[in-house]
Fold:
Amino acid sequence: METFFDQLAIGASTGALYALLALALVFIFRATDIVNFAQGEMAMFNTYIGWSISRPLSFSWIPFLGIERHINILTWRPEVFGVPLFLGSESDGSTRLGYLLIVIGTVAIAFVMGGLIERLIIRPSEGKNLLNAVIVTLGIFAIVNSIANWRYGPVPQTYPAPFKGNAVDFGLFKLGQHSLFALIVGLGLMFAIYVFFQRTRLGLAVRAAALNPQASELMGINTGRMLTLGWSLAAAIGCLAGMLVAPSVAGISPNLMLGVLLYAFAAAVLGGLDSALGAVVGGLAVGIGQSMVVQYIGSEWSDIVAFGLIIGILMVKPTGIFGSPVVKKV
Amino acid sequence: MLEVRNIRASYGPVIALHDISLTVPEGQIVTVLGANGAGKSTTLRVISGLLRPAAGSVLFEGQPIQGKPADWIVRQRICHVPEGRQIFATLTVEANLNLGAYSRKDKAGIKADLQRVFDYFPRLAERRRQVAGTLSGGEQQMLAIGRALMARPRLLLLDEPSLGLAPLIVRDIFGIIRAINEEDRVTILLIEQDARLALSVASYGYVLETGRVVVNEPAADLARNETVRKSYLGY
Structure:
């Protein structure tokens, strides 16, 4: 029985990451009717950027920050639970950016990149046929994957994790520190996303622009800007998911998000591609389901069950559990 | 206040407006009449920035505004209640009204205007937490007008507010349109299929046919002009 609860906990933790990526897919689908196949690869690439800036600082990297190593001007190094926030010293005497700085920097870059992709690539290709834009996202998928292979190579690199100690024992189940961290951050982000869309003026405007672009313009909403913001947010959320996935697998590699994206797709389809709640429920269900299948049936069945699920749902209930029936506007 | 001069506009290869000119003086209700496809809605779409005209100009208080983006035009406080209402069906009544005030930042003023909208349309106050798609047709029209009022318009563009509504509700809504004009001093450009009704509230009227103005005169004269009534207004 203990194994069952262990698997439940670890499944919920992976599921939270699927849910985040599924939410990113849902945002973009709701706003533009585009299924963004590049979501996972964008996240992977941004995660690599996080990896680059997490390496030991040196003169050659950023001269300005490298100076610090030698004259030690910056002595303020706050830590939370033993995790350096801004700057940390390694045992070999080198200095690295703290986890918080890495996260902030990476997410900021992801945010900008997501917006640029929408503006420069998606919008011009969207016009006549939705299928064009979907194929463009497939193209971005392939290109980004190739660039990562060329730039960083296929070998997985260890990825910084703030908490890597022993599993925490909750009595009923044990959960690794990183998985616990991922679960908490995942759930926290979902709550933040909920608050943004339900309680803020800007969040309401993003939803309105997705619902009815023309009416939104008549409200004074710049719908183009809302679309860009939607892609930026989706990229930032995907990137956070990627940064949480990397330490829990072998490390970061160009194929980091392939599996995750497929499971996030399963989650989004299960919940209904246009439902944020569906993405969350679907993500957790797929994560827990996967972990149970691996434990009790066999890991080779994991993909079969996930994609059997996608195909089955599309056949029986194409709108997913929480999706709204398709209403075509004339 | 608003002057439309020789507007020409098309949807792709289809020319919708050949040559439209009209004037809306401050504080008045002006109506645009005509059959389906005459170009009434297109004229409003050009004014509110949803459609870029091929030629001609739109002057708002003497300043050219043609071809400016719709969200900019709203900030000049020209508000368009579009054909078919275009409410946000899956959002609540209150969220719809808040979106109407998106172009403003004065919290106190927005709150006061929300109260004003609820005074005009008590049914919206009762249903403020209800999802807008579940409202009746009349209530949705009230919401569409209320939402436009939340931007505190100086010029209100109304596209067929009576469309598909029961006569009693139409009477209510037209009473409120008159009140918005008289009490809030909002200038109104009204498109209406029910010519008799429109002419009863308007001071001046234009009749369009296939993208051109064929008649324009004071509303009272239009209502008396039997030839116009029979050939263009159908009553």
